[in-house]
Amino acid sequence: xxxxxxxxxxxxxxxxxxxxxxxxxxxxxxxxxxxxxxxxxxxxxxxxxxxxxxxxxxxxxxxxxxxxxxxxxxxxxxxxxxxxxxxxxxxxxxxxxxxxxxxxxxxxxxxxxxxxxxxxxxxxxxxxxxxxxxxxxxxxxxxxxxxxxxxxxxxxxxxxxxxxxxxxxxxxxxxxxxxxxxxxxxxxxxxxxxxxxxxxxxxxxxxxxxxxxxxxxxxxxxxxxxxxxxxxxxxxxxxxxxxxxxxxxxxxxxxxxxxxxxxxxxxxxxxxxxxxxxxxxxxxxxxxxxxxxxxxxxxxxxxxxxxxxxxxxxxxxxxxxxxxxxxxxxxxxxxxxxxxxxxxxxxxxxxxxxxxxxxxxxxxxxxxxxxxxxxxxxxxxxxxxxxxxxxxxxxxxxxxxxx
Amino acid sequence: xxxxxxxxxxxxxxxxxxxxxxxxxxxxxxxxxxxxxxxxxxxxxxxxxxxxxxxxxxxxxxxxxxxxxxxxxxxxxxxxxxxxxxxxxxxxxxxxxxxxxxxxxxxxxxxxxxxxxxxxxxxxxxxxxxxxxxxxxxxxxxxxxxxxxxxxxxxxxxxxxxxxxxxxxxxxxxxxxxxxxxxxxxxxxxxxxxxxxxxxxxxxxxxxxxxxxxxxxxxxxxxxxxxxxxxxxxxxxxxxxxxxxxxxxxxxxxxxxxxxxxxxxxxxxxxxxxxxxxxxxxxxxxxxxxxxxxxxxxxxxxxxxxxxxxxxxxxxxxxxxxxxxxxxxxxxxxxxxxxxxxxxxxxxxxxxxxxxxxxxxxxxxxxxxxxxxxxxxxxxxxxxxxxxxxxxxxxx
Lengths: 403, 396
Hints:
Strand content of chain B: 15-25%
Number of helices of chain B: 9
Distance between the termini of chain B: 34 Å
Mean pLDDT of chain B: 86
Radius of gyration of chain A: 20 Å
Radius of gyration of chain B: 21 Å
Shape of chain A: globular
Strand order of the largest sheet of chain A: 1-27-28-29-30
Shape of chain B: globular
Largest sheet of chain A: 5 strands, mixed
Low-confidence stretches of chain A: 1-20
Number of helices of chain A: 2
Strand order of the largest sheet of chain B: 9-11-12-7-13-14-15-16
Largest interface: A-B, 28 and 27 residues
Number of strands of chain B: 16
Oligomer: heterodimer
CATH class of chain A: Mainly Beta
Structural class of chain B: alpha/beta
Structural class of chain A: mainly beta
Largest sheet of chain B: 8 strands, mixed
């Protein structure tokens, strides 16, 4: 009976999986860990790569994609404007777009849009580098409400502008704005709580459950901080100085362990959190993720070590100790996600690779040159399609559905 | 090679950083006590090469941004296993640490005062280009360097880069014939500029000290980190940055002889008028500039533009030497290429050999160990200080 019950549960969950779309509605995916559970996709491709379902041009930027209910969104910049694009996820047909004036902001890089939108049911939230915050209707792109945080709330903009995606938590919209975040009412745009008006870091707010409460982890200019999601009250703060205040990569959490990792030669630390301030268990310089965070699978981290100006490499580290397991060179400032136990890596020069996530070695089962030019943005998989973009804004949707 | 009284400051063409202490014989292998003033991105790149030379230990760092200073100190510790002392005030550093070599990588408006203070404190100096913010500042630096009997190395690594050296050899071989004109240039993309709101300076940064001898203005993220090159109170725009490197190639080739006349024009046609008020600011450097340097036997044109950057031209940075037998382009990541005037001949090309980040050749400026340690001899025919500030006052 017990066995039968388990069997029927498995079937039910399998059925639900196959019926329910494997959406990726916000930065880092459904579980906010850079992974999806989607398994039914092709990890071996013909010599010329997987079938290209559609292509698009979205303008200059670094925003990745989000998918829900058959819509895929990203952002780009052209001619003094940022634009949020909404395409049909299958056909690539443009469903709507929303543009607003935005400076190029090309300090030490090409500039353009950096933040990824967030989909929450029938709403889309977008925070621009310069503090323009929009709540859009997901079906039409119509503006439900908008706010300029720089002008209306006087918030300080960090050197490269805000780049964390908005986090929806209950009725709150939590942003990496200010010293330790800020929250707005997601339906009205009214500010609910705010932190000190100091420069933010560049990570996306990450919610973690602690008992009955939810803490939100944020990379701030000089530290990683945890605040209560509902009140903004600070739970802990770990001083972490990275050059130019670029605490960008989201922390990676497992139980009470919080792994923080940044670039510019800084490296990583494993924090043990609990009551009071975190304890540093160990530090390493083996992994230095400048922009995109690593992914954690089966006790091992997989991430890009090095800055955009260095010959960065892909590395595997043991989560418990930080020990390096392997290094795969010449990935550049690329990025990766994981799905169904496999890594999906887009290199800085536009090569897409798929490989089983294994601490033993990095052995791609599929690789293809899917884009030309610089690529610093993580690829995204949803419903059997991989979405990639280059910095100038070439978008490619690859069909990797199993026949 | 024509020598002038001004040509004291030694470019790196021949010997790298010549360290002229009274050290002799047995202690030629010892490490020099070096300090860095201005611990930003480029300062740390210089510092890494100083450490990599094996001839320097970094004993002290100075910066007016406390966070940047702490990050830099951690990096020195990572690289050398030794924690440097940290200072906000360079005067205190010079007084307490007594460094033998001082690396100066602050914004341009601080170069002269800090170089002079370091020389007077008995140190040799590695100062980033441009030497001074004005011609007179550079002249004052030369005078103090001579009086102090110390060596000043300017960070013109394009004087030692392998493809630059071989291009110069090629030029001097006469292969391109008599040279009538040189066009040095740097072009990039850009567009209209919007003002950015002023803000408080970052926590732990002494903005008043940062402005120092230059006019104080409200803090703005366009200025720091790094954007100060586009503000004329602190730097000289593109001609004071890229222009220094490429015009220096011309002075290297011609032996440092002066132009007879210099004139220039510039503007902000695309960026738009400069804005500076209590609420917000734009940059105020030109978005394009043309300068003509009239030499007795040839004309040199400098041109920079930060718009229309669609790679319409074959090269976007470097210097074209136009000769009777063809055109030599000396570039950056594109190495050098000779385009013969005779269409039947094929172009010649050499790739660069650069270090990262930012494609430099700083390592070659730190070959101390290969240089005999001695007091400086008579001034060699370098010319780097002159290129250090080729910007003409015409535009302002």
